Amino acid sequence: MPVLVMKFGGTSVANLDRIRRAAKRVGVEVAKGYDVIVIVSAMSGKTNELVGWVDETSPLYDAREYDAVVSSGENVTAGLMALTLQEMDVPARSWQGWQVPLKTNSAHSQARIEEIPPENIRAKFAEGMKVAVVAGFQGISPEGRITTLGRGGSDTTAVAFAAAFEAERCDIYTDVDGVYTTDPRICDKARKLDKIAFEEMLELASLGAKVLQTRSVELAMRYKVKLRVLSSFEEQSDEAGTLVCDEEEIMESNVVAGVAYSRDEAKLTVQSVADRPGIAATIFTTLSDAGVNVDMIVQDISEEGRTDMTFSCPTDQVVRAEQALLAIKEKGELNYAELLADRNVAKVSVVGIGMRSQSGVAAKMFKVLSDEGINIKVITTSEIKISVLIDRKYMELAVQALHDAFELHKTG
Ligand code: ADP
Ligand code: ASP
Ligand code: MG
């Protein structure tokens, strides 16, 4: 039997009614003759609640216990989905990550999938089970402890299963009907794309478009998984939603494919460090050892042998960063004047493969922001994207102005 992977995000399993609706969609595919692997998220809001409880109990938590707590939301929805399917006379069974087993490394809270042996689930399919419902977002480490795959990780669970079972397709059911030129919740002119290239989706995801977890796009690209994003709230045809595919499959495209944003960014400046070899290495090794995910980095020009080092990281990692840098200052391993933290910044990025061959995108982006009176604090670029850090209060305005200026509401 051909295998299909169907993933339902938090809003698609938010209550028993929605679970029933999702189960009906699964039933349609079973009736077509597929063996279906359903990946479920926790009910919407659940993971945030669990993370909140962990933070309140222990601000600098032990990541193994964080995983034990936050992985639990998916266990509930997996069991409920299997029960709902059974009530519809569809033979179904639920699986937690460790039961599959979905093997990961030991990087708790950000674990990477290493292997999904398909034998257990295949044996059940061979016995007549039609649907394997798998709890997304979770796995098991070599030490036998529960791990999680980072926020949004159920997308990655889904694509990894599609690769391991050579599924015909991996359908990601969510609360929007596809991938848009930008988040339709903050820009009403956002346009749904029928297709988007893997590389553009990868950049958009890594720059904050949470419709797909970055790692899921990487895996789909590597294992050539046919990946589709579609709505769980509408009747669906086989052409619905957005197909994430190779660049060659897309006939027309704009220079800029989309605008992404990341709201919860912080900017930290280590003031007046010595301008000599080894200082950047000391700062960023310390931050990495403390589990801080540094994104943008700028080093100012030096004056009298001293310079400022600025970097960005997620707002919820500022305390970790501050503590780690203070600790090495106190040990005499790094000498700096002051550590300044600005927690009110956001990152806005434009992404497009067309930028490889067309110049002027950066100039246009900066002009648009300046016309809106928005000051740019940090800039980074790569071959197919330009990102800026700005005051958070201008984030929506910046996204909308850039969407207009690059005419993303029109097809290329
Ligand atoms: P799920 O719970 O189904 O995994 P998520 O909340 O993780 O859903 O992702 C879907 C959300 O992603 C949408 O509701 C939308 O607000 C947001 N989003 C951000 N950027 C985009 C984009 N470019 N296209 C579509 N949705 C986007
Ligand atoms: N429930 C997890 C989260 O909210 C994983 C997911 O839904 O993809 O991040
Ligand atoms: Mg998600």
UniProtKB/TrEMBL annotation:
It is an enzyme of class 2 (transferase). SUPFAM superfamilies: ACT-like, Carbamate kinase-like. It catalyses: L-aspartate + ATP = 4-phospho-L-aspartate + ADP. Pathway: Amino-acid biosynthesis; L-threonine biosynthesis; L-threonine from L-aspartate: step 1/5; Amino-acid biosynthesis; L-lysine biosynthesis via DAP pathway; (S)-tetrahydrodipicolinate from L-aspartate: step 1/4; Amino-acid biosynthesis; L-methionine biosynthesis via de novo pathway; L-homoserine from L-aspartate: step 1/3. Keywords: Amino-acid biosynthesis, ATP-binding, Kinase, Lysine biosynthesis, Nucleotide-binding, Transferase. The keyword Calcium does not apply. GO terms for cellular component: cytosol. Pfam families: AA_kinase, ACT, ACT_9. Residues 268-353 form the ACT domain. Gene3D superfamilies: Acetylglutamate kinase-like, VC0802-like. Transmembrane segments: none annotated. GO terms for biological process: homoserine biosynthetic process; lysine biosynthetic process via diaminopimelate; threonine biosynthetic process. Its EC number is 2.7.2.4. One of its GO terms (molecular function) is aspartate kinase activity. It comes from the Bacteria. Substrate binds at residues 47, 74. The keyword Amino-acid biosynthesis applies. ATP binds at residues 7-10, 174-175, 180, 185, 210-211. Belongs to the aspartokinase family. PANTHER family: ASPARTATE KINASE, ASPARTOKINASE. This is Aspartokinase. It comes from Leisingera aquaemixtae. The lineage of its organism: Bacteria, Pseudomonadati, Pseudomonadota, Alphaproteobacteria, Rhodobacterales.
